[in-house]
Amino acid sequence: MGLVMTESKSGKGSFPTTDWGLLGDVRGSNTEAKHAALDILIRRYWKPVYLFLRHSGREEEAAKDSTQGFFANWIENDSFAKADKDRGRFRSFVLASLKRFVANEHRAAYAQKRRPSAGLLSLDELMDNVDVPFDPADNMTPEMIFDKSWASEVIQRVLRHYEQECKTTDKLVHYDIFSRRIIKPILEGADESSYADLARVHRITEKQAANHLLTAKRAFQRLLKEEIRLYAESEAEVSEETRAIFRILGQK
Q1: 84, 112, 131 — which closes off a domain?
Q2: pTM for the complete prediction?
Q3: Is residue 136 part of a domain?
Q4: What is the dihedral of CA 123, 52, 154, 73, to 10 degrees?
Q5: HSE-up of 177 (CA within 13 Å, CB side)?
Q6: pLDDT digit string, tens, across residues 144-192
C-alpha cells in the first residue's frame, strides 16, 4: 500500500517538521514513519541536488540519473541517519555528501542503474515535472546554485502557507500585491509592479496598495521566521538565516 505524501506537522501551527527533527523518524524502527520522513527530505532537497549536478557539467538525463543514484545511495547506506546537527546546517551536510558522491566516479557511473527503494515517492515523476524557479547565471558555481535552489524552495514553501492564511482571512489581495511586488521579482526576475499598477488591478488607491504590502510583508516575515525556527538553535540564528536566504536569492 503506497504512502500518502504529506509533510509532518510540528507543534508550531501547520508548518512541516524540521529537517533535523525528521531524523528521529529516519533513525527509528517504524518503517512507515521512516519512509514518510525520507519522502519529505527527498522532496525538499532533490531539486538543489539535481541543479548542482546539472550545472556541474552533466546533461539533463545524466543529472536525473545521478540524482536518483545519490538518494538511492543515501537510503541504502542510511546516510540520513548519520547526520549530526552539532556539525552545522543540514543543507551543508547534504552538499558535502553530494560532493563526495560526485567525486567517486565509479559510484556516479553506477548511479544510472539505481533508484530509491520501493515504498518511497517517485523521483522520476518529480523530475519529469521539474519547475525550476530561476535561471542560474553563467557565473554561478554549482554550490551557489545548490544554495539558491534551497533558499527558493524555503521561500516558496512559506509562500504557500501565506497564501493559505490569506484565503482563510479573506486577504488574497494582500497576497497578490506581495507576490507581484516582492516575490516574483526575486524568484522569477519579473519587473516590480508599481503601486499605480497594483491599485489599478485591484481597484484600490495607491495608498491602500502600499498599506496592504506593508501588512503582507509583516505577515510573511512572521511565517518565514516560524519556518526557520524549526531548525535554528536561537533567535540570533533565525535572524542570521533570514538574512542569508535573501542574500543567497540576491546573488547574480
Answers
A1: 131
A2: 0.66
A3: no
A4: 50
A5: 30
A6: 988 888 888 889 889 999 999 999 999 999 999 999 999 998 888 889 9
